[in-house]
Amino acid sequence: MHRIRNFHVLAIFESGLWEYDANWALVPLRTGQDFLSLKPNEVSFLEFRISDIYRAPEVAAKIRESVGPGFATSTWIDLNQPLFSALNLEKLAMFVAIGLIILVASLNIVTTLTLMVMEKNRDIAIMMAMGATTPVITRIFVLQGLIIGIVGTFLGDILGVAAVWYLDTYKVIELEAEVYSIPYVPFHLSMNDLIGVSVVAILISFLATLYPAVAAARLDPVEAIRYE
Fold first, then answer.
1. What is the pLDDT of residues 189-205, one digit of tens each?
2. Beta carbons of 146 and 209 less than 8 angstroms apart
3. Which of 8, 153, 166, 197 is most exposed, with minimal Cβ within 10 Å?
């Protein structure tokens, strides 16, 4: 049977999650027990707050061991499992997309350096004729490609951090709270992800310089300046 009782609303709170804001009310414990016909020493369930939220499964297992059979536990991970599965899939898709973008950028570096080697054949040949060794020529083109990669990565990091701050601060992307449970798309900057993506981008930029650098180092100076 439905229970109906009038309550006096003292305040309205906003948690940011539509599911709680639309369906939950906070009342004194004794009032809730009376409304649900529970004894003073009875409650329908208990909630535990822990300092490290990622230890929730471990804490839940210890609670089940302590209280014995007849009780069940559910963590925030269990309650939001579909959401986390979707987020993991989205993260994988974003990783693939970012990888393809970096791959295209690395191909641009390869193309730029290859064209530069073709244009600078005469200059490279003169340097080699004046005593420049193969490692020196290789380092020149590797450093040039690395500079392009490092500058591009640094500028991308700055723009990415600024975009995350702006989009999260001003809640630019709004959502239907009834559908997504949150009124806007939150953005969180992870330093581990930032450092990881930056390192991978610079590493790919370095690998992209190897072929043009080796091609420049293998240039025969005699053939390059034969008709000059």
1. 989 989 988 998 898 88
2. yes
3. 8
Q: How many residues belong to the chain?
A: 228
For residue 115, the tally of other CB atoms under 10 A from its CB is 11
CA-CA distance, 11 to 206, in Å (whole number)?
59
Largest CA distance in the chain: 103
Domain chopping of the chain, boundaries: 18-79, 81-224
Is 200 within 8 Å of 101 (Cβ atoms)? no
Task: Kindly tell me the burial class for residue 159, based on how many C-beta atoms sit within 10 Å of its own C-beta (0-12, 13-18, 19 or more).
Answer: exposed
- Which of 14-23, 96-105, 153-162, 198-207 holds the top average pLDDT? 153-162
Reported as type and span, the H/E element at residue 129 is helix 121-129
Q: Which of 123, 102, 68 minimizes the C-alpha distance to 197?
A: 102
Q: Which of the 8 DSSP states describes residue 174?
A: B
For residue 134, the one-letter residue type is T
CB of 137 within 8 A of CB of 216? yes
Q: What is the Cα–Cα distance from 141 to 215, expressed in whole angstroms?
A: 10
